[in-house]
Predict the 3D structure of the following.
Amino acid sequence: MSDVLLNVEQTAKRLGCATAGALRARYRRTPERLPPAIRVGRRLYWSRDDIEVWIDALKIEERARIERDAEFRRRMAEMGL
């Protein structure tokens, strides 16, 4: 495990969003909420490992959602709806 910390700008870049988007994701009340940040003075930092694990978990959730949607559509088609 590495102890590399990412600042807000680096975290946003890794997520592919604007800095404001990363800060908003910090306060979401959904699974898309970022892992807890580490505050050093007025600055925020995230563990790179935590961010990578969080991204992987979102990918797994998204794949599961896509599979559920496909199964639902298949069942609806079988029923003629």
